[in-house]
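Entry 14. Structure prediction run on the chain below.
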Amino acid sequence: MKLIVGLGNPGKQYERTRHNAGFMALDEIAKRCNASFTQKKFNAELASFDKKGEKIILMKPQTFMNLSGEAVLACVNFYKIQPEEILVLHDDLDLPVGKIRIRQNGSAGGQKGMKNIIDLLHTQNIARIRIGIDKNPLIPVVDYVLGKIPAEQKEAFDASVEQAAKAAEMFMSERIDLVMNRYNKR
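Output returned:
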């Protein structure tokens, strides 16, 4: 079993904001795998399907970003999912728009949703795909991450979301180090 979690904030006002990069990547994965977010459980929207004989769960926590770990923990406990079976997709201020980076483990790097997951699962051994949103020193961080993707960055951003989805799809049937070798070169 694999659990693939996209981080974001629920609600219309947050759609297409930088902070919802994880949700957007999960939507792309669902589209690519003909899955729908029809189930509501663990305070999250879920889609599930089988890929090469393995159950895959896509999760969009509905707890708001900073409490994402609550939904993840409930799902992990229910299905007895191991940390190496989890992949989290989230936005990253330290990467330029259009870039993704995959890590096998490590600290949250300032991403509060990821920090909450690490804290509640008591491990940093959780793979993640970081989707670059860049930063603007003239705009407060909260306003920036909750801002919409500007038209001039839309193409690069959408391409990185698609790359993140492709990498997550590879994770469904491959080891994370192989996914990193393939996608971190870009």
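The chain has a mean pLDDT of 93.
Filed with the rest of this week's runs.
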